Amino acid sequence: MEKAGFKEKRRGRRYPLSKPFQFISGPCGEGKVLDGFIVDMSYSPGSGVSGIGVHVHEELKEGQEIEMKSHCQPQRSPKATVRWVDHPDESTFRAGLMFTE
Question: What is the pTM of this model?
Fold first, then answer.
């Protein structure tokens, strides 16, 4: 898919998803726990889930590392890098996250 000179770099297909999640945006887990909402995921056979699209109320920056909180496996907290950010309205940020661990 290509939009206004922007070439899509996604390796997998995007699937809708509707799920709340929590994340830490500070370095090395030092930040506060924040709430967000997963709106879609990128999945490709053989590779699995490579990233997610989220809505959050805290500003995220491209390249920022975040740590997702897992209620099912508290000892495992997947890490992701913010790949892009959009600001569709005054109180919401839409971001694409790519898993790094």
Answer: 0.81
